[in-house]
Amino acid sequence: EKALQAKQQEAEKKMLDNFKQKIQKRIHEFIKDGTQEKLKLEPMDKVLRAIVHDVAEVAGLASFSFGLEEDDRYVMLWKKEFAPSDEELLAYRKGEEWDPEKNKELQRQREVEEQLEKDRKSNPYKDTPSSNYRDKYKHLIGDEAAKEAARGLVSNSQYGFVPSKNKQDSRTIEQVLADTRARKKQKVEHNPSQSSDTN
After folding, report:
1. What's the domain of life for this entry (predicted)?
2. Rounded distance, CA 126 to CA 121, Å?
3. CA dist., res. 114 & res. 121, Å (int)
4. What angle do CA 193, 197, 199 make, to 5 degrees?
5. Direct distance between the N- and C-terminal alpha carbons of the chain, in angstroms, rounded to an integer
6. Is the pLDDT confidence value at 182 over 90?
7. What are the angstrom distances between the C-alpha of 74 and each of 56, 90, 104, 141?
8. For residue 163, what is the DSSP state?
9. Over the stretch 103-125, which tens digit does the pLDDT of each residue have?
10. pLDDT average, residue stretch 157-169
11. 66 φ, ψ to 5°?
12. Cα separations (Å) of 128 from 81, 113, 136, 137, 150?
């Protein structure tokens, strides 16, 4: 049993050594090739990726692993002079292909937005709405409907238990006070016994 285990370990070690030699050869060819900036390797398991990272570090290359699942993770190598930007790394981490032209366009858009934001912050009082509210929502509120509805607006005849007609008082404060005094005076004249009890 121990002999079998030792054989398996020996076979695994030999396989890893062969893989390391192949990767060293492949990386050496990549470094000599002046036309290539980066090299994408096939998906491999964690141990093999670790070997690739070690060999790349010794060779002076930048190496990163990408992929969402463990089965499809792969290593990409860059020559030091063509090291990837943060945006490029982010794209690969998201599982997207990197397009330098698309990135330049996005960079220009960001610069324009930053400039607009800077202008907006420096001139806070020049902000004007881009459109008229009524024009924007004309399809919802219409042109004349709101005006006509406001003209035809009549209050409810009753709020709660008291009719609205009873709540409308057009007298001035002086008139209300005079009416109140007159009622009190009238009350006192009709019931003189109660007024003497309260005094």
Report:
1. Eukaryota
2. 10
3. 10
4. 120
5. 120
6. yes
7. 14, 15, 26, 58
8. E
9. 777 778 888 888 888 877 776 55
10. 67
11. -135, 165
12. 48, 18, 15, 18, 28
